[in-house]
Design a protein that fits this description.
Layout lengths: L32 H16 L4 E3 L9 E7 L5 E12 L8 E2 L2 E3 L7 E3 L2 E2 L1 E7 L5 E7 H14 L10 H14 L26
Antiparallel strand pairs: 1-2, 2-3, 3-8, 4-7, 5-6, 8-9
């Protein structure tokens, strides 16, 4: 059973290149009805896009906020809403990198390897202003880092070498015709995708 809010409306996903994707977003200070509607819509949009996480700027809203529904290394499903996230990563001998594939719903269809610490912890508040803390390994660790990056105006392509970034954009261009401008309001064109089992955030 989901602990995330339901009954939201699916919104178009904002793509890389839009200004809101590449600047530090505004802290959440108002926890009223407008925020509750936004969070519900973000959950609906994430689910429609079959992603495991979605930040507010990915639906064009300039706020430090993300929602997620993502498994950890053992397959345990973790869900949450985080406003004003603060990321904590292991340091020194506790820091191990995971070179897994990564994708972004704002650059649909493209994936490449991106090295990130294999454990992450995020603290913040939920959509009601109550303190929350999430931590984990595997895909969950990658998701928490990826979404916190979004709130700071960073996309995962910013973490890639020029060669990998070029390859990523080439793959995105190849699949671009499959994703309508208002995706996932309008579903993507079905095709065989070697990354269909790799969720994006």
């Amino acid at each position: 059973m989901s602990t995330l809010p339901g009954n939201g409306s699916v919104r178009p996903i904002t793509r890389w290149g839009e200004d809101v994707m590449h600047r530090v977003n505004q802290p959440v200070t108002d926890f009223g009805d407008e925020l509750q509607t936004l969070v519900a819509d973000m959950v609906a949009t994430m689910n429609a896009a079959e992603g495991v996480g979605l930040a507010a700027n990915q639906v064009g809203v300039d706020l430090q906020l993300f929602v997620f529904d993502c498994p950890d290394k053992e397959g345990k499903r973790v869900q949450g809403v985080v406003c004003n996230p603060v990321l904590e990563l292991p340091e020194g001998k506790d820091r191990n990198l995971d070179e897994g594939d990564e994708g972004c719903l704002s650059l649909p269809g493209a994936f490449t390897k991106c090295a990130r610490p294999d454990f992450a912890k995020v603290t913040g508040v939920d959509q009601h202003g109550k303190p929350v803390s999430f931590e984990g390994d595997g895909l969950l660790a990658r998701c928490l880092q990826h979404e916190t990056d979004h709130t700071q105006g960073m996309v995962f392509g910013d973490r890639l070498s020029r060669k990998y970034k070029k390859r990523l954009f080439a793959e995105a261009e190849e699949f671009a015709p499959d994703y309508p401008a208002d995706w996932p309001v309008t579903p993507m064109v079905e095709h065989e995708d070697e990354h269909e089992d790799t969720p994006a955030t």
